[in-house]
Input
Amino acid sequence: MPDYWMISNRAISNGVPGSEQGPLTFYVANAGANLQDFASWQAIPADQFKSLLVLAANQFPALSQDDNENQSHITLLVHGYNVGWTDAAKMYQSLCSALYTGLSSLGICISFDWPSRGSVIDYLPDRAHAVACAADLANLLSELYDWMLDKQQAAIDNPANACKAKVSLIAHSMGNYLLQKAMASAWTRKNKPLLASLLNQLIMVAADVDNDLFQPGSEDATDGNALANLSYRITALYSGRDAVLGASAGLKHFGTRRLGRSGLAVSPPTGTDNVWNNDCSSFFPPDVTGLLIHGAYFHHEGTLALMRQLLRGIDRGVLDKSGALKGNLWPVAVT
Output
């Protein structure tokens, strides 16, 4: 059974994934592989990828309802802007090492790899790429939604057929913009369902989207409504120390701040109770600069521990009382 999973729509250029969009391709790799070496990945047909994933998920332990927080996950990871293929693979392997390996593994993580150009000067082309790639992700999410409905009916007919996995998603930076557009498309295709969630947990990390996304009457309110209705819980992790998103805000329509830098415009959003945010600034020490903070969530113990608890579905009130929502590394007290 594969240990690593990737779905990519990067075109292959000179033998490696490049910065242009290509056909949706499915890859697997085994334990011990250097995931930054493209030769370590094996391309397989889509149907084989899906069959292997179902087989892997069926090996998850069957848990009772009162042990729901320990249920295994199938998690999609969507990387952000300014990430070439090698950096995307490195980020994916790092997250797998932290949360998806060993005895404390959360389950299976799948990289959804889209053709970000990996260059700071290509911000606007990357944004256009994100919109173009949203259709491929929407197709995957729509197919996953149909499969989950079939599993739900199978469990109704026979409880022994209940699904053993939760479906969750972690999106970083501009990957949240791609997800925003993909979820809106999937929601529309499925006739805007209100009674069945696609994602159990959605974690929006340093999200490069409008911070009024979930607010009724905003420019992207329809997209926000799709995200909220297709997710059981959405958590936005942000930091005002994020200098990357400070620069990003200047390229958007005037007056709208970034969710990943400022948090929700209204918290909780009007009429929505499953969307919340958390300021992660205190998890990063002073020597982690504003530029580095944008990706630091995936490298610091406090934020990784918080992501684990969020994916498990621990109640936000419990997280608050346990001290999991705040670190002690910043600001540093002056003596």
Notes: The longest strand covers residues 16-29. The chain has a mean pLDDT of 90.
